């Protein structure tokens, strides 16, 4: 029997939408754990008393399940196996491999007593055509690779052990990978993880993006990805990316760069964070920051020696954790101030975060605290760093980032 890391937050979300009149769409990066999540959920509903006969789970990554099969053939095949008078649960994994799959999904959704769950690449699943067809009838659950906490759980590390070296474990986390299968490969050595990441990266670039969007300038496309990966956490715009690449001999129009960045977001490779005008209280539409879905992919894109940029990598990990916890996130900007993250929590409250690797120098302490002190409101303000000994000031809480990530 397979051993899975229990992913409580996502399972709780699926459970809350179970039997609701909505299509459940689980989206996310290739190999981020979408299929495993559905398997875990299937096991949960069986434990709750649902009979196995009431569940149909079809993996469309297996050629025998989709080759030479039309959507209507699959539709009638699934309908034949439905148990009349009982709730039926249909799981369609990587459904985009079926031509006109949206008709299959729509037909099953319209069928009485059928609860539909689908997974796949976001670029396929929620393209504008499908979003229009299913408008108001689906809920998207966007899945990320392992959090730091899930990573340690997958490695069977007891976080209650007070002698743990969290910094060393964190470097493992960011230098290897947060992708579930990659973590399972770590016993075979780093080379195995690197090969795995390389294969995933090629699949995303070739299958999910280049083929679908008919990108012919693959070299230029790769250069843009590498440039953005080298500048995570920095303010970027298509125009400044274009001018920087031009200095390096790559002539790419900013509108092409803008288009490529949209494709990368659609496939969950990068996450875009808009700026928020702290004075005018409005979102700005230029000069965003980008963060990478898995810091381990930096090994493929930038190279392994990244100690000099560890502050931005920590920022990347904190950003992913904030969205994992259901926050809406912006980067805050005013005339003389920049706040790393301005968050709107699931309860609608505002929180501010500054991220620093270490508050060792007096100048660093002053910079991080003074940025938050300029915010003359009563919203919670936090500084996250790796320091074991923390210091609060002016109502600003300084927290150890490892404990914050682990919720301890």
Q: Report the helical percentage.
A: 40-55%
Using the CA coordinates, give the radius of gyration: 23 Å
Give the overall average pLDDT. Answer: 90
**Oligomerization:** single chain
Spatially, the strands of the biggest sheet line up as: 8-7-10-11-12-13-14
Class of secondary structure makeup: alpha/beta
Gross morphology: globular
Total number of helices:
18
The biggest beta sheet reads: 7 strands, mixed
Share in β-strands: 15-25%
Question: Total domains, how many?
Answer: 2
Number of separate strands = 14
Weakly predicted, low-confidence segments? none
Q: N- to C-terminal separation?
A: 31 Å
Describe it.
The protein has 408 residues and is an alpha/beta fold. It folds into two domains: 8-143, Rossmann fold; 150-406, no CATH class. The protein is 43% helix and 17% strand. It contains 18 helices and 14 strands. The protein has helices at residues 8-17, 34-47, 63-66, 71-80, 101-110, 122-125, 128-133, 148-154, 166-175, 180-184, 190-213, 218-230, 238-247, 254-266, 298-301, 310-324, 362-373, 401-406, and strands spanning 23-28, 55-59, 88-93, 114-120, 138-143, 270-273, 275-277, 282-283, 289-292, 328-333, 338-344, 350-355, 381-385, 397-400. The strands form three sheets. It has a seven-stranded mixed beta sheet, sandwiched between helices. Strands 2-3-4-1-5 form a five-stranded parallel beta sheet, sandwiched between helices. A two-stranded antiparallel ribbon has the order 6-9. The radius of gyration is 23 Å and the shape is globular. It starts with 7 loop residues before the first helix and ends with a helix.
């Amino acid at each position: 029997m397979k051993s899975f890391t229990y992913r409580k937050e996502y399972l709780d979300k699926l459970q809350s939408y179970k039997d609701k009149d909505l299509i459940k769409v689980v989206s996310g990066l290739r190999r981020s754990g979408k299929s495993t999540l559905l398997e875990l959920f299937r096991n949960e509903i069986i434990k709750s008393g649902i009979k196995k006969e009431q569940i149909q789970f079809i993996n469309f990554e297996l050629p025998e399940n989709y080759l030479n099969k039309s959507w209507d053939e699959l539709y009638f095949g699934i309908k034949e196996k439905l148990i009349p008078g009982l709730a039926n649960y249909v799981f369609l994994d990587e459904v985009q491999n079926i031509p006109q799959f949206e008709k299959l999904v729509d037909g099953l959704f319209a069928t009485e007593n059928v609860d539909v769950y689908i997974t796949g690449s976001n670029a396929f699943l929620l393209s504008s055509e499908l979003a229009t067809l299913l408008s108001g009838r689906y809920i998207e659950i966007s899945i990320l690779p392992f959090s730091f906490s899930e990573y340690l759980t997958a490695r069977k590390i007891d976080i209650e052990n007070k002698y743990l070296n969290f910094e060393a474990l964190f470097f493992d986390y960011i230098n290897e990978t947060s992708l579930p299968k990659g973590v399972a490969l770590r016993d075979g050595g780093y080379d195995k993880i690197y090969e795995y990441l390389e294969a995933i990266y090629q699949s995303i670039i070739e299958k999910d993006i280049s083929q679908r969007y008919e990108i012919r300038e693959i070299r230029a496309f790769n250069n843009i990805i590498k440039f953005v990966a080298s500048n995570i956490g920095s303010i970027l715009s298509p125009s400044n990316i274009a001018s920087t690449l031009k200095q390096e001999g790559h002539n790419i129009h900013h509108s092409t760069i803008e288009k490529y960045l949209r494709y990368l977001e659609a496939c969950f490779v990068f996450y875009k964070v808009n700026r928020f005008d702290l004075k005018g209280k409005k979102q700005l539409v230029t000069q965003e920051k980008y963060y990478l879905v898995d810091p381990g992919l930096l090994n493929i894109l930038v190279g392994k020696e990244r100690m000099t940029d560890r502050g931005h990598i920590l920022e990347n990990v904190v950003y992913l954790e904030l969205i994992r916890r259901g926050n809406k996130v912006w980067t805050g900007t005013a005339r003389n101030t920049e706040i790393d993250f301005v968050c709107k929590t699931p309860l609608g409250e505002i929180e501010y975060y500054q991220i620093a690797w270490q508050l060792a120098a007096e100048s660093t302490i002053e910079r991080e605290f003074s940025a938050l002190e300029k915010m003359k409101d009563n919203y919670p303000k936090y500084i996250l760093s790796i320091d074991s000994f923390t210091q609060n000031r002016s109502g600003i809480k300084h927290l150890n980032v490892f404990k914050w990530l682990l919720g301890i």
